[in-house]
Amino acid sequence: MYAIIAYKWGLRDSHSYCVAIKNTLELANEISNEHHKDRGGKYGIETVNEKGEAVAYIESDYFGNGIGEHPVLLSKLKELNTIRGIK
Question: What is the pTM of this model?
Fold first, then answer.
């Protein structure tokens, strides 16, 4: 089982919700990609396994690629990821 979680702007301490729960990683990845596109790239999409371990992640389009990049949000994301040990 895989849970797909959407995080607005990719920030884990901000608005988030469960998109779906799927039986296979392949199906979870398909749903993740579709949802990311459908939401206009505003959400980072994380897929976690039954142990709560992240197995896939799609970054929000608003960070790191110059499209709508917001310096305050980007700074906050980098700070949170550093605290969590995420590179």
Answer: 0.71
